[in-house]
Design goal:
Layout (H helix, E strand, L loop, with lengths): L1 H25 L10 H21 L6 H14 L5 H4 L14 H21 L7 H26 L6 H27 L14 H27 L17 H30 L14 H21 L4
Helix pairs in contact: 2-3, 2-6, 2-10, 3-5, 3-6, 5-6, 6-7, 6-10, 7-8, 7-9, 7-10, 8-9, 9-10
Length: 314
């Protein structure tokens, strides 16, 4: 088990490191993040597969293939503005859709893709259309929108500014997971929500918040400037005085991502319990399913995006 976990982790870390290097050094101006797309698409579709499989394991209906297509549409929608730079043009500044608007369009398209699939297979004497439609829409939204927003986070600012933001989000989120685990194991006495996750404790949450805040300060102080170089962020100044400094930025980012990551973890635990599953899947030996890796990141991308858009690290 431990050997499988280490082997799988080594493969993931190697692939991530290579793609990060390529993205940081060989990106097309205006299409930053394109190198990371295969990785984000893997986690997006892998998460969708895990959720759809657990929905079916719980005795409910879910059209897994159409959910995967809809998820891909949502995730890829955030890359549409990159088509202009790739073609040697500039994305029009006066485009009424903007850049984030494509994600909304992708989300709406995913709903109607799911509906059209159900229309095609509908039989008046067959039950389950509503169940399949709603489960398909949920899967595509839950697994697609967060990763589309990760692409958008990578695209924030100039050059490698967005890459620094994305790496900071991942580092803070995963450090919160680790801090909560070790603090819970060492000091945990008071259960947080035992009906969902018996191992989670208030002491673990506190440890996760402290760890995330320390890591956020380190990232904003050293990692962020090192990666972004001379690139500018999306805003020239923070919406609140002092938010751009590492100290106050960490005080906001650390606790917020620690709590959000916990919510993502508990959301997966709830679905696991309802489907009587120990892991979300078996695609990653030693780690479980893809959702077991992405659960906290799915929940932290929105608050992280809003924090950076509000001027953290500006």
């Amino acid at each position: 088990m431990l050997k499988d976990r280490l082997r799988t982790s080594a493969v993931i870390i190697t692939v991530v490191a290579v793609l990060l290097y390529l993205d940081g050094n060989y990106s097309i101006v205006g299409a930053e993040g394109l190198w990371l797309l295969p990785l984000l698409l893997f986690f997006s579709l892998g998460t969708a597969w895990d959720i759809a499989t657990m929905v079916r394991a719980s005795g409910r209906q879910c059209q897994r293939n159409s959910a995967l297509v809809a998820t891909a549409v949502v995730t890829l929608s955030s890359t549409i503005p990159m088509a202009w730079p790739v073609a040697g043009a500039v994305y029009p500044a006066d485009c009424p859709v903007g850049e984030l608007g494509w994600i909304v369009i992708g989300g709406i398209a995913a709903v109607f893709i799911t509906l059209m699939v159900e229309m095609n297979r509908y039989q008046s004497d067959e039950k389950g259309t509503i169940e399949r439609t709603f489960s398909g829409v949920f899967v595509s939204a839950y697994a697609g929108l967060p990763f589309a927003l990760m692409v958008a986070l990578r695209s924030l600012g100039d050059g490698n500014w967005g890459l620094a933001a994305l790496l900071t989000m991942i580092a803070v989120t995963k450090s919160a997971d680790a801090g909560a685990y070790f603090a819970g194991k060492t000091f945990g006495k008071h259960k947080l929500i035992p009906r969902l996750s018996p191992g989670k404790t208030w002491q673990g949450l506190a440890g996760g918040i402290v760890t995330a805040t320390i890591v956020a300060f380190a990232c904003l102080s050293w990692l962020f400037p090192m990666i972004k170089g001379g690139a500018d962020g999306p805003v020239s100044e923070a919406v609140i005085d002092g938010l751009a400094t590492p100290f106050f930025g960490a005080l906001l980012l650390g606790p917020l991502l620690a709590v959000a990551g916990l919510i993502g973890d508990l959301a997966e635990s709830m679905i696991k319990r309802d489907s009587a599953a120990k892991d979300s899947g078996t695609l990653l030996p030693g780690l479980g399913g893809v959702w077991d890796v992405s659960d906290s990141l799915i929940a932290t991308i929105l608050p992280a995006f809003l924090c950076f858009a509000a001027g953290v690290a500006a």
